[in-house]
């Protein structure tokens, strides 16, 4: 039986439980790099999770869950398909 969580239930989990779910059940969507920080977007259940990774220190520094909005918008790259 597949587990389903709401974003509210996900946010109530410990940070270690959140990371475990994202990395074992989440689907990688896209990433971008800004300065020395890598931002990776995962889709899990019916929402998204952004993982912030500091390249210089080789550490994960933040996790944010969200359903839509500005955080999601920055992952979509407009491509000219007419070329």
Describe the protein in words.
It is a single chain. By secondary structure, the chain is α+β, with helices and mostly antiparallel strands. The protein has one domain (7-73): 2-Layer Sandwich (Viral Envelope Glycoprotein, domain 2). The protein has three helices and four strands, in the order H-H-E-E-E-E-H. It has helices at residues 7-12, 15-25, 70-73, and strands at residues 27-34, 37-44, 47-54, 59-66. A four-stranded antiparallel β-sheet has the order 1-2-3-4. The longest helix has 11 residues, at 15-25.
- Radius of gyration, in Å, reads 14 Å
- Total beta-strand segments: 4
Briefly note the CATH topology name. Viral Envelope Glycoprotein, domain 2
The CATH architecture would be 2-Layer Sandwich
**Main sheet record:** 4 strands, antiparallel
Question: What is the typical, i.e. mean, pLDDT?
Answer: 87
Figure out the total of helices. 3
Name the poorly predicted regions.
Answer: none
Order of helices and strands: HHEEEEH
Report strand order across the widest sheet. 1-2-3-4
Domain count: the total is: 1
Shape: globular
What oligomeric state do the depicted chains represent?
single chain
Please state the structural category: alpha+beta
Distance separating the two termini: 45 Å
CATH class: Alpha Beta
Helix content: 25-40%
């Amino acid at each position: 039986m597949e587990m389903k969580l709401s974003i509210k239930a996900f946010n109530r989990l410990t940070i270690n439980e959140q990371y475990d779910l994202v990395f074992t059940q989440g689907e990688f969507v896209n990433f971008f790099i800004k300065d020395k920080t890598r931002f990776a977007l995962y889709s899990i259940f019916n929402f998204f999770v952004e993982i912030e990774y500091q390249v210089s220190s080789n550490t994960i520094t933040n996790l944010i869950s969200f359903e839509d909005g500005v955080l999601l918008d920055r992952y979509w790259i407009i491509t000219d398909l007419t070329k």
